[in-house]
Amino acid sequence: MMLPITLDPIGTVRSPYTDTARIPRGLGARHDSEGILEIRPELEAGLTDIEGFSHLYVIWIFDRAEGADLMAHPPSDNRPHGVFATRSPQRPNPLGLTVVQLLGRDGPRLRVRGIDMLDGTPIVDIKPYLSSVAGELLRRGWLEEAERREEGTPPGRSLCDEQ
């Protein structure tokens, strides 16, 4: 039997989005909006040396999501997929993960680009974005298939093959 885990948010997202309907989603969605990651002042020392990284992982809570469902219907496809193969907020543990570009720091406030969270979203953690996976080794699963259907690319061919 697993015991519940309690998380204490380290800060709050300041975002231009106050309504989920305004957050870009679906095929071709671009997340170029800027925002602020406001870290609790008593945790500011934990941001030491963060300015050296271009991008950050932000782990946050879908604090306004209701319920959980093991099958999700993402806006980028007309077929259902397992929730763990999507970014759906209706998950057993409502955690979100976003990669943002770090634009600057002012004390406990990080100015970032790539916001896709609602204003006031609790932040659980921040980590520097590091990847040792070469781009040509990455696969995008069902999303590649959905993009091919949208573009009319024959199955088995990549959109990259078309360029």
Q: Topology, pairings included?
A:
Layout: E1 11-14, E2 34-39, E3 55-61, E4 71-72, E5 81-82, E6 95-106, E7 109-113, E8 122-128, H1 141-151
Antiparallel strand pairs: 1-2, 1-8, 2-7, 3-6, 3-8, 4-5, 6-7
Question: Could you provide a short overview of the structure?
Answer:
This protein is 7% helix and 28% strand. It has one helix at residues 141-151; strands at 11-14, 34-39, 55-61, 71-72, 81-82, 95-106, 109-113, 122-128. It is globular.
Could you please describe the fold and organization of this structure?
The chain has 163 residues and is mainly β. The protein has a single domain (11-130), classed as Elongation Factor Tu (Ef-tu), domain 3. It is 7% helix and 28% strand. The protein has one helix spanning 141-151, and strands spanning 11-14, 34-39, 55-61, 71-72, 81-82, 95-106, 109-113, 122-128. The strands form two sheets. It has a six-stranded antiparallel barrel with strand order 1-2-7-6-3-8. Strands 4-5 form a two-stranded antiparallel sheet. The longest helix is centred in the C-terminal third of the chain and has 11 residues, at 141-151. The chain is globular. The protein starts with 10 loop residues before the first strand and ends in a 12-residue tail after the last helix.
